[in-house]
Amino acid sequence: MSTASLVKGTAVPASLPWSGLLALSTAAFTAVLTELLPAGLLPRMAPALGVTEARVGYLVTAYALASFAAAIPLTTLLRGLPRRPVLMGALLGFACGNAVVALSSSYALTFAARLVAGVMGGTLWAMLVGYAARMVPAERRGRAIAIVLAGITLALSLGVPAGTAMAEALGWRTAFGALAGIALLLAGWVRWRVPDFPGEAPGTRLPLGRVAVLPGIPAILTVTLCLLLGHQVMYTYVAPFAAYAGFGRTGLVLLVFGAATVAGIYVTGLLVDRHLRPTLLGALALCAAVMLALGLAAGAPAVLLVTVTLWGAAFGGAPTLIQTALVDASGPARADVATALQTTVYNAGIAAGSLTGGVVLENAGARSLPWTALPLMVAALATVALGRRHSFPAARRQT
After folding, report:
1. Are 381 and 234 contained in the same domain?
2. Owning domain of residue 29
3. Is residue 399 part of a domain?
4. Sequence-distant (≥ 6) Cβ neighbours of residue 257 within 8 angstroms
């Protein structure tokens, strides 16, 4: 492909549009922080809202369920509209939702605000990857997606601890107020530095069902589901597994995992555009090897820390690789709908993996968790290995 592509009559430069991509990455950061911040503030929010800590935890559940339910229908409804106003609308929705949480003393009102924020999250996640792909030439698409998705890792490794620390120092309402302010400023940043793109013209829109069966899409969604199922079986119950391994410092295990995911995203950003297929095969093979090692040597603390490091590095880069393959298969113009499908599958994998891990933990004990995750990782690896033609080709499509 040439060093520039024409989109809406303007040239897309070969160099990365860093300001716009960082705005999208900050949007991902804001969405993750909005979703997860209540989990770290249960003891502080519960008295103020007059409910139990468990009911405050439902504020996270409400967000996730609304995001899950809204991604496909809202993306389908809005796919014909210009992209930047929709993106700004989602960010302003975040600002309003977080502002209501910051000011509300009513649990019902707070719950409703979280539902609104979740709907905005479902809309946002369906847009971000496709937006990044349309801002750069095809040969730089993978790196652009890696930059945007790095916001997720930064939110998990830095944002949630920082938000919790702010809440402890200044109060939990201040933390949500700050999030509202960030979302408001971010909407302005997007208006200033992120280009607008047209929606899908009526005559070119494929029905949702036809996007779902485009060549390569079913296999990519299958890999997403298997990977998230296997990952969540272990990750959700890493604390009891660490205790079983004789290493009770769960916080250190999670810190090691988080730091390794940052390294994984960095390495993936360097490799994704030139070596997507072998890099993804390597990442999934490493995830499977980690589960095998944990199953065989579950009682060794040293093995636990080493394997968690490798697991974090492999898993950290996998979403970028899979998302890039998805955009290659769907084409950037249909990426929003394809990503909405993947968002739904992603959340289903998280929910089903956590449920499966819980059942295994209760009935077979922590030692069985890696053996449950292993065949799921192998299934994801096999799907990529077999998908040489459409889903994960050796030579990427330059569209």
Report:
1. yes
2. 17-204
3. no
4. 235, 238, 308, 309, 311, 312
